[in-house]
Inverse folding.
């Protein structure tokens, strides 16, 4: 039954969903029209807001590029290849591949959203080793496994709430931080995470096609890629040596240089985690990936070669991030984002507002597919609405109510990623490299993930204690 439903939506999305760049442009038009109609923004004012926002994600875009290429560089290192070879001996059937990739991807997402790259590498390598794995469904497993991220250790909204002098405190919307014990470690968030860990792998397994309808990795590889003879990073680095011994090659391939710089990096990382606990952010994650990538490749020049290979697949991020930042600009600087949130929240009660917050998070995420960016758009509105609705609550109860509704926004942000192809930019350069696969090939399957996960999120934000 689910296999039939998955094929039905996969076929529909392949026919209807344009390339992710066209999707970004169409969303820009829609945001502009809505700003003109609903908040009385002037046409040139909308264009100015669009341009003003165009550049606000440049630092984040660079962080995204680094998380992708440094993660990929680790994935093509000898230790990673040995691990995947070992794992392939344990995972021998398509059912096991779908289940393992989705489950491990959920675990990775709970640690850091940037680890979707590792999920993609795991999926790609298992698909190359295990026969009768449908590569489109497998890529959908990778994206579906992204669903738990905003309730994990890198969740933007709970981390912002726990940050001293965050923008809500500076603007006096909040009086104090809301600790992660009330958000990430709450019973509600634990139940959400466990529910997704159990349900999502089973869902993806149940959507597997029959053998005669499977499209394998080899079926999707383009002819040019098939004709290429693969060589390892170490072989390519070795081939670039000069014929005679020389100083430059000695430096390029020096293990000593790599050991010294990596010891410096590990010293810094050790001090960070010792003094701050498991404090994971994008900068620390990128630095950790760089250090471990350098360690795994052993010499500076091998790491240079690995990074050169990894950097060949970042065009989507470079092109599309400014356009989504432009949409964010329209949402922020015309007041459209807050207007949407206030309109939806207008008839809320204490009992219904967490679920309404979840819907707000899902809707705004279509236009602003960045957790931190979305919170900047609607965060103050949501907290002020909580304070109004909970005016008679005790301070501790009000804090818990704000935490519940804030996490509901976080879940909504993660939820509609399943129909928003923006975050395919984070892993498609890995899983689709050398193939003809496009985002539209997987969105039908992830639409089913959206439908099923709705019930987990909706039940938990409404009834599970925080």
């Amino acid at each position: 039954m689910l296999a039939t439903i998955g094929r039905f939506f996969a076929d529909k999305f392949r026919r209807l969903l344009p390339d992710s760049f066209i999707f970004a442009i169409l969303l820009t038009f829609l945001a502009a029209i809505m700003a003109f109609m609903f908040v009385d923004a002037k046409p040139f004012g909308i264009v100015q807001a669009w341009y003003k926002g165009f550049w606000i994600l440049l630092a984040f875009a660079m962080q995204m590029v680094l998380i992708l290429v440094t993660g990929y560089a680790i994935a093509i290192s000898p230790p990673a290849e040995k691990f995947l070879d070992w794992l392939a001996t344990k995972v021998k059937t398509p059912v096991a591949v779908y289940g393992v990739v989705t489950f491990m991807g959920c675990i990775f997402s709970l640690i850091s959203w940037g680890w979707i790259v590792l999920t993609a590498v795991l999926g790609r390598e298992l698909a190359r080793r295990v026969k009768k794995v449908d590569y489109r469904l497998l890529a959908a497993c990778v994206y579906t496994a992204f669903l738990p991220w905003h309730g994990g250790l890198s969740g933007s909204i709970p981390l912002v709430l726990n940050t001293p002098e965050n923008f809500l405190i500076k603007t006096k919307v909040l009086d104090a931080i809301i600790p992660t014990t009330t958000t990430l470690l709450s019973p509600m968030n634990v139940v959400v995470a466990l529910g997704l860990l159990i349900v999502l792998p089973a869902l993806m397994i149940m959507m597997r096609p029959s053998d005669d309808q499977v499209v394998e990795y080899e079926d999707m590889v383009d002819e040019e890629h098939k004709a290429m003879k693969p060589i390892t990073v170490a072989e390519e680095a070795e081939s670039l040596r000069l014929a005679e011994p020389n100083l430059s090659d000695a430096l390029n391939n020096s293990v000593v240089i790599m050991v010294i710089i990596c010891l410096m990096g590990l010293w810094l990382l050790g001090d960070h985690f010792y003094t701050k606990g498991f404090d994971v952010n994008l900068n620390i994650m990128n630095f950790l990936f760089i250090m471990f990538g350098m360690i795994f490749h052993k010499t500076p020049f091998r790491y240079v070669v690995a990074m050169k290979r990894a950097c060949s697949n970042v065009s989507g991020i470079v092109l599309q991030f400014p356009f989504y930042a432009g949409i964010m600009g329209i949402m922020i600087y015309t007041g459209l984002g807050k207007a949407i949130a206030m309109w939806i929240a207008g008839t809320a009660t204490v009992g219904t507002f967490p679920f309404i917050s979840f819907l707000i998070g899902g809707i705004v995420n279509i236009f602003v597919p960045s957790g931190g960016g979305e919170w900047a758009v609607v965060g103050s509105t949501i907290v002020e609405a909580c304070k109004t609705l909970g005016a008679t609550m005790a301070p501790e109860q009000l804090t818990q109510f704000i935490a519940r509704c804030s996490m509901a926004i976080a879940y909504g942000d993660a939820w509609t990623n399943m129909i928003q192809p923006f975050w395919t930019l984070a892993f498609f350069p890995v899983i689709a490299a050398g193939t003809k696969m496009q985002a539209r090939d997987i969105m039908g399957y992830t639409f089913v993930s959206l439908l099923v996960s709705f019930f987990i999120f909706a039940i938990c934000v409404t009834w599970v204690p925080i």
Remarks:
- The CA atoms of residues 13 and 427 lie 19 Å apart.
- The chain has a mean pLDDT of 88.
